[in-house]
């Protein structure tokens, strides 16, 4: 499965992470640094499993916890209709 943001969704860095902006609706979603890393890795082509490894290494958390976080973020951005 590839993770691609819809064409009308942009990702912008902020002081505390990033935001995803749906340019059609004007809605936006603030992301902390962990969520930002997850979204960036997924849209760069990493698998959820590899993304969890990256997050676990960067933030020194257990890989099972990291994989749960990755799954949660995927679910949230998919439910918001931000993925193609």
Automatic annotation (TrEMBL):
UniProt-listed InterPro entries: PQQD, PqqD_sf
Gene3D superfamilies the record matches: Coenzyme PQQ synthesis protein D (PqqD)
Short name of one Pfam family: PqqD
Taxonomic superkingdom: Bacteria
Name listed for the protein in its UniProt record: Lasso peptide biosynthesis PqqD family chaperone
UniProt lineage: Bacteria, Bacillati, Actinomycetota, Actinomycetes, Pseudonocardiales
């Amino acid at each position: 499965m590839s993770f691609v943001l819809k064409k009308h969704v942009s990702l912008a860095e902020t002081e505390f992470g990033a935001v995803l902006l749906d340019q059609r609706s004007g809605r936006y979603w603030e992301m902390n640094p962990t969520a930002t890393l997850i979204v960036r890795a997924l849209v760069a082509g990493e698998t959820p499993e590899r993304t969890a490894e990256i997050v676990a290494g960067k933030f020194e958390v257990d890989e099972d916890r990291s994989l749960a976080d990755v799954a949660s973020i995927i679910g949230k951005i998919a439910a918001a209709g931000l993925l193609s």
